[in-house]
Amino acid sequence: MAGNALAEDALRQIAGPTLNDAEFAFLREFVYRHCGIALGEQKRQLVQGRLQRRLRALGLKDFSAYCALLQQDPEAELGELASAISTNVTAFFREAHHFELLERELLPRWLEHKQRTGERLRLWSAGCATGEEPYSLAMVLIEALERTGSTVDAKILATDLSPQALATARAGVYPLERLAGVSEERRRRWFLRGEGANEGYASVHPKLRERVSILPLNLLHEWPMQGPFDAIFCRNVVIYFDQPTKRRLFERFCALLPVGGYLFLGHSESLHGLSEAFELVGRTVYRKRG
């Protein structure tokens, strides 16, 4: 019997600690309150598996210790927790029709108007993940500025909760295979190919970095920026939220957009039944009503 007990203990050490009912209930409530992410019972194994890596990184022996850490200092671990339980899937020029609309219609109109009025142009990538979205926006923006000869003050704010994602975005260095959605012409102009130890990687051009401010932000907490933004990109983010959280978030986005401002959502997201403040004007493209 002693041998069986030792064998079971060894297996537990290999597999990692398990998440009991009370610990999972605590984590569900904590994640919902601080991140707006609703975790169903079916996510239990996923949460356990992903957070076992955090336990190892922190040198914690079990989930009880991890829950105690969260209670002691919620903010210190919040970004790592959110990053562990969510999936940052992104790509350069993902959902290309959004960038085509910007390039073809919106940016020329905005830049012409703001050149006359002296207003600034601001875009917000809310949930920028590892940076592909804001850098894609920067390429389109700079090219539009050059085509029109505009001197408008134009910048992009990029925010995310995940420390790892933000670190990648700030570094702006990507494996060459991540540039699959970038045209050859843009690859040559906007990326610097690595050599030697950096072979197989490319870094974004300094001109793109100059247009993008990358900052940590929890969408459920207070926002330091006042706006207004001409457009907000919040794509493939609210899929994790329940209906009340989505409704509150869209109300807050609305407050930072002028009449006629644009909200871009992900391909599986919609404002249907959540906000009357916007009208659908394209594929997951919404405009603030007057």
TrEMBL record:
CheR-type methyltransferase domain ranges (all copies): 12-290
Coiled coil: none
Entry superkingdom: Bacteria
Catalytic activity, reaction form: L-glutamyl-[protein] + S-adenosyl-L-methionine = [protein]-L-glutamate 5-O-methyl ester + S-adenosyl-L-homocysteine
UniProt GO molecular function: protein-glutamate O-methyltransferase activity
Residues reported to bind S-adenosyl-L-methionine: N88, T90, R94, E133, D160, N218, L219, R235, N236
Keywords attached to this entry: Methyltransferase, S-adenosyl-L-methionine, Transferase
A single BP term in Gene Ontology: methylation
Reported function: Methylation of the membrane-bound methyl-accepting chemotaxis proteins (MCP) to form gamma-glutamyl methyl ester residues in MCP.
Name the record gives this protein: Chemotaxis protein methyltransferase
Provenance organism: Aerosticca soli
